[in-house]
Amino acid sequence: MSRYLTGFVVLSLLAVAACSPRSPEETPASSEAASEAMASSLPPADYTSLANVMTCDWPVKKTDTAESLLATYKSYAQVATIPGAEGTEEKGVVLYGDDPRRKVEVFFYDEAMTQVSTVLIRGDSQWSGPKGLHLGSALADLEAANEKPFRLGGFDWDYGGYVTDLNRGKLAKIKGKCTLGIRLGIPENGGPVADSIEGDRSLISTDPAVIAAKPVVQELSVGWPQPEAVQEDDVQ
Predict the structure, then answer these.
(1) Domain count, the chain
(2) How far is residue 18 CA from its own chain's centroid?
(3) Range of the domain at 160
(4) Quick check: is 177 in a domain?
(5) Structural domain includes residue 120
(6) Is 35 inside any structural domain?
(7) Residue 24: beta bridge partners?
(8) Is 156 part of any domain?
(9) Comparing C-alpha atoms, which of 221, 230, 210 is closest to residue 11?
(10) Are the beta carbons of 70 and 81 closer than 8 angstroms?
(11) What is d(CA 35, CA 32) in angstroms, rounded to the nearest whole number?
């Protein structure tokens, strides 16, 4: 089973796989500087373009394999070692790895990379998700899209900031029988982080201390349970 967090597990467990926002290639200092320079010069994102909206079937679908993705995306896809949980690394497929605006990371359950577990965006990716959510979306935007408060893990630890229970809100099951995974983090210009919202604990999005910290979406993913698992019907 993939060591990376699947969207299914995000919504049912707090003990999920954490990922740093670094890319697989960024080891030399020169690469980091080049990446930062490119990111700072990116044009404004167009989150309304359907080509940039991540769904259960785009840009990766459940039935894809590493082989099919390499055939479809050709030079825009490569098998790579991707940062996974707690400093681990995992073999997967990266789409548009040379363009931080379009980069997508694909994790698999099996070593043969025939069963997709998670399709992840992070870093400077300009893909968006359901209801216009995207990296940088505020806590209030996420709560409004879900139309209900939700639960999340405490911040500032390996598994911090993951949404663990959407409280049967509108985001709990997206069309296509995949599950949305969301991770929040405190940006540099965020508010104060109280001790009460740090560490291994369960929080509610309406907690005044969480609101004061001004967390934003730092990771979005879609995922599926392992193929043999049974899924419930879609909730529209």
Answers:
(1) 1
(2) 10
(3) 7-20+50-223
(4) yes
(5) yes
(6) no
(7) none
(8) yes
(9) 221
(10) no
(11) 5
